[in-house]
Amino acid sequence: MESLLNVSTDSIGLLVWLLWALIGVFCALCAYRFTGGKRSLLFDMIIAVVSATLGGYLSTQCLGETPMQLFLISVMAAVFSAGIMMWIVGTLITRFSK
User: Fold this and answer.
1) What is the Cα–Cα distance from 55 to 60, expressed in whole angstroms?
2) Measured between alpha carbons, how far is 29 from 21 in angstroms, rounded to an integer?
3) pLDDT digits (tens, 9 = 90+) for 41-59
4) Residue 6: pLDDT above 90?
5) CA 66/CA 72 separation, integer angstroms
6) 3-state DSSP call for residue 35?
7) pLDDT of residue 65
């Protein structure tokens, strides 16, 4: 069970990957709700899940010293990267759809 929750620069547990993906899904659902359904939910989910997992993974490779610090930083990085990516994609879609 401990290997599922492991967070280090050498290995990352399965539940941590799933948490990053769930953060991306939540971000996509929030973006879909805030835009009033004007964008595709599937497209938002793909962008948010990829950016959240990528942000979480890259933060574990670059930051943190202890496992708990590394986990918290990776969760914050996943939320931040998913939010920023959804904002960038939304801005590009509205700019080029005119």
Assistant:
1) 9
2) 12
3) 899 999 999 999 999 888 8
4) no
5) 10
6) coil
7) 67
